Amino acid sequence: MSKIGLQLYTLREAATSNFHNLLIDVGAIGYEGVQFAGFYDTPAEKVNSTLVRSEMIPAGAHVPIDQLQENLDSVKQFHESINNSLIICPYLPEEMRQTKEDYLKSAELFNQIGKKLKDSGFQFAYHNHAFEFEEMENETGFSLLFGNTDSELVKMELDCYWATYANYDPIKIINKYKDRCISLHIKDIKLENGEKVSTEIGNGTLDVRSLIQTGIKNNVEWFIVEQEHFTGDPLKSAEKNLSALKDML
């Protein structure tokens, strides 16, 4: 059954000032899980105890590619301690995505990381932005990454906002990759002063209800709220987004 989580990058300022209290506040809103984007020097034992107190579970964690290359054993040890089994690469540095050959090398690296993580009981996934949909030699970086990685080793966290931003239909992507897509990032999109920005669910043009139903049909495990632009309190926005998503499940 699909669950709703919050990507804590949404509340990054509050996380910086008091990570422990932030987790308590997110749990009080009613989220089932949180997806991490750093731990702000908080020991694993403290993270785990706060999650238990908040009645939440890990919904994955974004871990930079350099840590996955250079410190994978430490990453595994930390995440075992907080009972998180989903490790997500959130971004590819520019030097790893300049050419088709770069993407092919990155895909092979993902296979290697994914194999090591799977052998240790984890799942590995990649989270897109918009740049992966740029074309090179008649292919997109997105298709190069997922077309040249093992579907058992490298899963997908589809950011529906960024796919839409790049003028791709996230529903078509979910249906194409089916159960490889294990997590969706959900944030609505609107035009503001001629630029596309994120907004609370229901305030923009993204057909979130259809996205949710497509995700459920394809056994997506996590629907992850994320937002980057705000006109008010980000925690209030997180609460509104949770309420809107619950109405669609």
What structural category arises from helix and sheet content?
alpha/beta
Number of helices: 11
- How are strands sequenced across the largest beta sheet? 1-2-3-4-5-8-9-12
Spell the H/E element sequence. Answer: EHHEHEHHEHEEEHEHHEEEHEH
Rg result:
17 Å
Task: Identify the overall geometry.
Answer: globular
Average of pLDDT: 96
Distance between the termini: 10 Å
Helix proportion: 40-55%
Oligomer: single chain
Structure in words:
Helix 2 (19-29) packs parallel to helix 3 (44-54) and helix 6 packs parallel to helix 7. With 249 residues, this protein is an alpha/beta fold. The protein is 43% helix and 21% strand.
Features:
249 residues, alpha/beta, eight-stranded parallel β-barrel, two-stranded antiparallel sheet, 11 helices, 43% helix
Secondary-structure blueprint:
Layout: E1 3-7, H1 12-17, H2 19-29, E2 33-36, H3 44-54, E3 57-62, H4 65-70, H5 72-81, E4 86-89, H6 100-119, E5 123-127, E6 135-136, E7 139-140, H7 141-147, E8 155-159, H8 160-165, H9 170-177, E9 181-186, E10 188-192, E11 195-199, H10 208-217, E12 222-225, H11 234-246
Parallel strand pairs: 1-2, 1-12, 2-3, 3-4, 4-5, 5-8, 8-9, 9-12
Antiparallel strand pairs: 6-7, 10-11
State the gist of this model.
It is built from eleven helices and twelve strands. The protein is of the alpha/beta class.
